[in-house]
Design brief:
This protein is an alpha/beta fold. It folds into three domains: 10-346, Aldolase class I (TIM Barrel, Alpha-Beta Barrel), CATH 3.20.20.70; 384-478 and 602-642, Rossmann fold (3-Layer(aba) Sandwich); 492-598, FAD/NAD(P)-binding domain. It is built from 21 helices and 27 strands. The strands form seven sheets. Strands 3-4-5-8-9-10-11-12 form an eight-stranded parallel barrel, surrounded by seven helices. A five-stranded parallel β-sheet has the order 15-14-13-16-27, covered by helices on one side. Helix 13 (392-403) packs parallel to helix 21 (629-642). It is globular and about 75 Å long.
Length: 643
């Protein structure tokens, strides 16, 4: 397939771009608590500039310290930040990329604990997430904020940025003025769509006044807010025309607010390019360029959006986390080598919303956010490396170690590579996991990894091969709790069902309502089985979050799955279970099949027997501690880089 549209140069105002690839602003939390970017920030952005992006829009940046929404959000509210930004823009420009910075004020979508005061907004309507009634800005205060946006843009220009982006999306302050869901004013900044548009219009005009008409201004807007009484495409088409008349040079069309967060990080069951229709609608109403965003996760989809006229540029968010070299690989026809975004949300949105993590990364590409730490340089002393197991940990460790010059062989006892990760790619809407496995193997083949399937590693085999390093990545296996009757040979595991090793009848009881059990119910439901899930917790798929959980639960319930919750299984029967629920002992029977999905335990029979036999011995992934796949790939990268 040709990608002529993606590789074509383009312009946004006076800014010339070498291609149509845009990296959008995404919060990273790489900065420090005082609003400065760090070496980690610089390494991260420069890697994407090296990777060939035509335009890099630097993450959400505060125009006012009282308007931040995350603890480590960078700032432009003072001249003190200019030298930090200058270093970044100079390094980005070395690789032929242009760069903009996103100007932001959270408004009501922040907490008093973070900003040290009551949040502000267009009206005193609380954010549904933070649930704090904000201070309604006076007209004087609004004009003061207009000046702050303009001053921040002036600092951005002095810092070497080629453009700015006004964040009028995702329910932040500017969006709170343009959306009738929040803006209940009837003065010059409300009352009708013209009034609601006035705040961003004044911001655009102020930026142009302070920075010049030749300094491009991009406006990011939620094409559809996906909330009651919020913006629809009909509104955003009109608003975009107001922005263009005020001097905006491009419209960047995203989706949702905090009240509809499930739309911000869409899981894999969302159609690729699902949001391109909003960009297309807006493009019909304006003459300035329009940028599309939203699960444009393959070059083919991105090219199609441009080729069919839906947008002028494509914005690759999570895709740029998964592979900073996405544009270069398209240009060099290395499509098979693109590290795919599998829409898992584990290390991007998942980490950003986890107080114990905060800093984003990527499951498939755990080097994201650690570009300065993991250089992947050639090893001074190449080693013979034996990797046992071919799940995500084993496959990631294999290609990285081989890239660094080590002689790597992967041993897999099954007839296929992928381990439990391969099985995880079988349920509905999980097929992108298989693209990650394919990527790992492609990169392994490129760097000379040898894959030996149908080969169970033993102590004798290790002694025979005489490796310098053994990495045990044997993963996990189904956990069978000590419950009476559970060891029935007629029972099957969720993995066996998904892999097609075992058949089940028409009426199925699934013991365990975590992600594995829930996905198995969705899989069986799509194959015309009637399923019942029983679990100790109050709901199913509790370890998942945001859109992934909501979409998964929706699929399960669409299959008319019955749920028995807050129920502890006391005994397994041949066709059912006895369980305790709310202090009562209950029994349910009449099932054709019972599927066990009650957790996973490590598989690690080799560590003890290999100690002292090989110079280096590592255990990674579920073989060490059962967890999410991102923990496995992170450990794999760390070990492979250490060799």
């Amino acid at each position: 397939m040709q990608f002529n549209n993606l590789l074509k140069s383009g312009e946004i105002g006076s800014m010339f771009l070498k291609n149509r690839f845009v990296m959008p602003a995404m919060g990273t939390s790489y900065g420090d608590k005082d609003g400065h970017i760090t070496r980690q920030s610089v390494d991260y952005y420069v890697e994407r500039a090296k990777g060939g992006f035509g335009l890099i829009i630097v993450e959400v940046t505060g125009v006012d310290k009282q308007g931040i929404c995350t603890p480590n959000q960078p700032g432009l509210w003072s001249d003190e930040f200019i030298p930090y930004w200058q270093e970044l823009t100079e390094k980005i420009h070395k690789y032929g990329a242009k760069t903009a910075i996103q100007l932001h004020h959270a408004g009501r979508q922040t907490s008093p604990e973070l900003i040290g005061r009551q949040p502000v907004s267009s009206s005193s309507v609380a954010c549904p997430v933070f649930d704090v009634i904000p201070h309604e800005l006076s007209v004087t205060e609004i004009y003061e904020l207009v000046e702050k946006f303009g001053d921040a843009a002036k600092r951005a220009k002095a810092s070497g940025f080629d453009a700015v982006e006004v964040h009028a999306a995702h329910g932040y302050l500017v969006a709170q003025f343009i959306s009738s869901q929040v803006n209940k004013r009837f003065d010059e900044f409300g009352g009708n769509i013209q009034g609601r548009a006035k705040f961003p219009v004044e911001i655009i005009k102020n930026i142009k006044k302070k920075c010049g008409n030749d300094f491009p201004v991009i406006v990011r807007i939620s094409g559809d807010e996906k909330v009651d009484d919020g913006l629809t495409v009909s509104d955003t088409k009109i608003l975009s025309r107001y922005f263009e008349e005020a001097g905006a040079d491009a419209i960047h069309v995203t989706i949702c607010t905090y009240g509809s967060l499930k739309w911000m990080f869409m899981p894999a069951d969302t159609p690729a390019g699902f949001n391109a229709y909003t960009a297309s609608e807006i493009r019909e109403s304006v003459s300035i360029p329009v940028i599309a965003v939203g699960r444009l996760n393959t070059p083919e989809i991105a090219e199609d959006v441009l080729a069919t006229g839906k947008a002028d540029f494509v914005s690759l968010g999570r895709e740029s986390l998964a592979d900073p070299e996405f544009p270069n690989k398209v240009k060099e026809n290395r499509i098979e080598e693109i590290s795919p975004c599998i829409a898992c949300l584990q290390s991007c949105a998942g980490y950003l919303m986890n107080p114990q993590k905060l800093k984003i990364s990527c499951l498939v590409n755990p080097r994201t956010g650690h570009e300065g730490e993991y250089k992947l340089e050639k090893a001074m002393h190449p080693k013979k490396v034996m990797i046992i197991g071919s799940g995500p940990a084993g496959l990631e460790a294999a290609w990285v170690a081989a890239k660094r010059g080590h002689q790597v062989t992967v041993y897999e006892k099954e007839d296929k590579l992928g381990g439990q990760f391969r099985i995880a790619g079988i349920p509905p809407s999980k097929h992108l996991i298989l693209s990650a496995i394919k990527y790992y193997i492609t990169m392994g083949n490129k760097y000379g990894v040898r894959y030996r399937t149908n080969t169970e590693a033993t102590r004798e085999l290790v002694i025979k091969e005489k490796p310098d390093t053994v990495i045990i990545a044997t993963g996990g296996e189904p956990l069978l709790p000590d419950i009476m009757g559970i060891k029935n040979p007629d029972f099957v595991t969720a993995a066996d069902v998904l892999e097609g090793k075992k058949e089940v009848g028409r009426k199925v009881l699934i013991a365990g309502g975590g992600m594995i059990g829930s996905e198995t119910a969705g899989f069986l439901g799509s194959h015309n089985r009637n399923c019942t899930i029983i679990d100790m917790l109050a709901d199913i798929a509790m370890e998942t979050f945001l859109g992934i959980r909501e979409h998964l639960v929706s699929r399960v319930m669409e299959c008319k799955t019955d749920l028995i919750l807050n129920a502890k299984i006391m005994e397994f029967l041949t066709d059912g279970v006895i369980y305790e629920q709310n202090g009562n002992i209950e029994k349910i029977t009449g099932f054709d099949s019972i599927v066990l999905a009650m957790g996973v335990k490590p598989v690690n029979p080799l560590e003890e027997v290999l100690k002292g036999i090989v110079p280096e011995l590592y255990v990674i992934g579920d073989a060490k501690k059962v967890g999410q796949a991102n923990s496995a790939t992170e450990a794999a990268l760390a070990v492979a880089d250490r060799l």
